TrEMBL record:
InterPro entries named among the record's database cross-references: Citrate_synth-like_lrg_a-sub (IPR016142), Citrate_synth-like_sm_a-sub (IPR016143), Citrate_synthase (IPR002020), Citrate_synthase_bac-typ (IPR024176), Citrate_synthase_sf (IPR036969)
Superkingdom of origin: Bacteria
Pathway participation: Carbohydrate metabolism; tricarboxylic acid cycle
Entry protein name: Citrate synthase
MF terms (GO), sorted A to Z: citrate synthase activity
Species classification: Bacteria, Bacillati, Bacillota, Clostridia, Eubacteriales
This protein's record includes keyword Transferase: yes
Amino acid sequence: MSDYAAIEKEARIFTEECVTNNRVDPALFAKYNIKRGLRDQDGKGVLAGITNISRIDAFEERDGKQVPCDGKLWYRGYNVYDLIRGLRGKRYAFEEAAYLLLLGDLPNEQQLESFKECLAKCRDLPTNFVRDVIMKAPSKDLMNSLTRSVLTLASYDDDIGKSDLQTQLEQCIKLISVFPMLAVYGYHAYHYYECDGSMYIHRPRPELSTAENLLQMLRPDRQYTDLEAHVLDIALLLHMEHGGGNNSTFTTRVVTSSGSDTYSVIAAALSSLKGPKHGGANIKVMHMMDDVRAHVADPTDEDAMRDYLRKIVDRQAFDQKGLIYGMGHAVYSLSDPRAVVFKNFVHQLADAKGRDRDFEYYNTIERLAPQVIAEKRHIYKGVSANVDFYSGFVYDMLGIPVELYTPIFAVARIVGWSAHRMEELVNMDKIIRPAYQSIMVPREYVPLQDR
Ligand SMILES: CC(=O)SCCNC(=O)CCNC(=O)[C@H](O)C(C)(C)COP(=O)(O)OP(=O)(O)OC[C@H]1O[C@@H](n2cnc3c(N)ncnc32)[C@H](O)[C@@H]1OP(=O)(O)O
Ligand SMILES: O=C([O-])CC(=O)C(=O)O
């Protein structure tokens, strides 16, 4: 559907007027000490709250000075690397980490079993929901489908009007449980109606982990290997939480603070996450890599690669937004620990899957992009590969379709959003309402015939 042709001429004129009248003199941002992106000049975020859910380290103290360091990510006091090591390649991480993030402590065996049972019991959709909601108006944009499903689920919830903490937690657990179904079924509907593929709707199995269920619901034959399920599980672990300030979690806290319901809060968070500067970057990276492959024939030709990356940053190539997707981060400086883990998986998988040449492309871009960005932009803490740089490559090698990359991020991040919603509800009872410096000047009203 595109009816915009009918209004195109007028819209061009309106746009010009809109842009001209909205321009703010850049000097005023400095004059009023406005922090662009709510960040200080040195990149530190403006403090907006307190959280005990996670911590991100990107700087360390050396000789009394804060200097950039390799990134570290902590969930409830535990380094995520230790959480991964603690699994010893045997247990699945997602359910245990969800318990940790949501309830605040690592579960013992019995607590973990009862939490997993809860998730399994909740992994169920209302009668005909797949047919009536998910299969209606299927879209390549699975984040929109997911958001629509979440908002529609609200109308099936008899407790929607309740505001007590137990109801909010129950709703969060319910949504965490059904997210894999909403995402995968959304993909199947799109694949069937838009790509002439076949449709199969496999039910989740209560005895399986979230990662295993994702894979068995996705694949026609329901088959997956242990390695595939464990790689996906760790990918989920790495995406679950990232402090209160990341765009979608801050959205969660902002919308929660207005007193809105769980479904609306999660829909808002999804709308933030899909943005290409946030979680949507994992899909953008894949499209960008296709574009680079089409323009740079040899991944080891550093001059050609550097030239093409310069074109991307100069807005002359790819989507002309001036961004090398998968690179840079608002907080991390020298490295993002999640990208380090993903790169490790790439090492393990690329060779076995005959994807060494693709790996060369990633490798060269990871090395050159920070230099190219530094030539063109103001860098104060370093730019390095972020979580979205290698994740898509790993998913691709697991046979996961690209449309599902950001929804998979959401399947994990809803746990962090839920934890922050609960932390906001337990501790704060104040609507979040920052200020904007107004530069508007009052004007005398002009009657229509005199304008
Ligand atoms: C899960 C996640 O959300 S991880 C991030 C996923 N997003 C992406 O991969 C998209 C590409 N990256 C980016 O757009 C940015 O790095 C962001 C949005 C993640 C962080 O941006 P910022 O907070 O502005 O980062 P930072 O302050 O370190 O940037 C310094 C300068 O480098 C630029 N820069 C940072 N990363 C990039 C990039 N990948 N490509 C081009 N320029 C970049 C910034 O625009 C900024 O320039 P400016 O101040 O002259 O406008
Ligand atoms: O912290 C951020 O700004 C973005 C990010 O990496 C995430 O949300 O995982």
